[in-house]
């Protein structure tokens, strides 16, 4: 059988522009979700609409490309676990967005590279280098300022339960996403990205449907109270679906080992959109902390260009 050659990569300025636009699309998806939640929409409803729309498009692409859904022996249990982890990540992240400023939730959730490095080491992988450990410490230092720990200690004020729960949920989202990335890289690497993406989204959609039918998350399927909420839900479906599908189609030509750090524009774009749309503004110390976190993550994830596969559980480079 003749092996198909990889498509030529885009010029770097085109690849960077695509990644910047997709990072902003994912940021807008989370801001739109917060608008919908503030209007009474349930978290399960938002995930159901988002995953359902993406599932339809992905299914059409897989059918059009005539790809088989057959998985290698022993891969189904890992695929199922992957889908459940991505479902948990979606629930945790949207639940965090509903409770704390969107930029804060995204910054906490974006520490997953640290957790992935530690998980890989714990499961027999290479030990983090001195450079990696230093950057991890830098990210954690930035996170201290993002969470405004110095200000809260100085003010001696109590932290509300919603704030604590929101931060905990964002960290949980980072943790399960790190586990999903590990499974993708170590257990499902032989599976074609489009097939893995379709099956993952299908499991997310099915799991959310089951949770809604059983009432596992009370109020999870609540409808928006006004047209504003419905428009916000439609916006998040379009933004997430567009970002995901464009990345899914373009990944082979984006030179991800070299350009992936560009996607870390997402927390910064979320900060700007949260200020414009939601009037959510972090303090100067939190903004500085956010810049430290993003800088550390960019340096931590940066790799010199090399012929290395760079796909996430859904064939893209970002969280769901």
TrEMBL record:
<keyword id="KW-0472">Membrane</keyword>
<comment type="similarity">
    <text>Belongs to the EamA transporter family.</text>
</comment>
<feature type="signal peptide">
    <location>
        <begin position="1"/>
        <end position="27"/>
    </location>
</feature>
<feature type="transmembrane region" description="Helical">
    <location>
        <begin position="43"/>
        <end position="64"/>
    </location>
</feature>
<keyword id="KW-0812">Transmembrane</keyword>
<dbReference type="InterPro" id="IPR050638">
    <property type="entry name" value="AA-Vitamin_Transporters"/>
</dbReference>
<dbReference type="InterPro" id="IPR000620">
    <property type="entry name" value="EamA_dom"/>
</dbReference>
<feature type="transmembrane region" description="Helical">
    <location>
        <begin position="133"/>
        <end position="151"/>
    </location>
</feature>
<feature type="transmembrane region" description="Helical">
    <location>
        <begin position="284"/>
        <end position="302"/>
    </location>
</feature>
<feature type="transmembrane region" description="Helical">
    <location>
        <begin position="163"/>
        <end position="183"/>
    </location>
</feature>
<feature type="domain" description="EamA">
    <location>
        <begin position="14"/>
        <end position="147"/>
    </location>
</feature>
<keyword id="KW-1133">Transmembrane helix</keyword>
<dbReference type="GO" id="GO:0016020">
    <property type="term" value="C:membrane"/>
</dbReference>
<feature type="transmembrane region" description="Helical">
    <location>
        <begin position="76"/>
        <end position="96"/>
    </location>
</feature>
<feature type="transmembrane region" description="Helical">
    <location>
        <begin position="102"/>
        <end position="121"/>
    </location>
</feature>
<dbReference type="Pfam" id="PF00892">
    <property type="entry name" value="EamA"/>
</dbReference>
<feature type="transmembrane region" description="Helical">
    <location>
        <begin position="229"/>
        <end position="249"/>
    </location>
</feature>
<feature type="transmembrane region" description="Helical">
    <location>
        <begin position="195"/>
        <end position="217"/>
    </location>
</feature>
<protein>
    <recommendedName>
        <fullName>EamA domain-containing protein</fullName>
    </recommendedName>
</protein>
<keyword id="KW-0732">Signal</keyword>
<dbReference type="InterPro" id="IPR037185">
    <property type="entry name" value="EmrE-like"/>
</dbReference>
<feature type="domain" description="EamA">
    <location>
        <begin position="168"/>
        <end position="301"/>
    </location>
</feature>
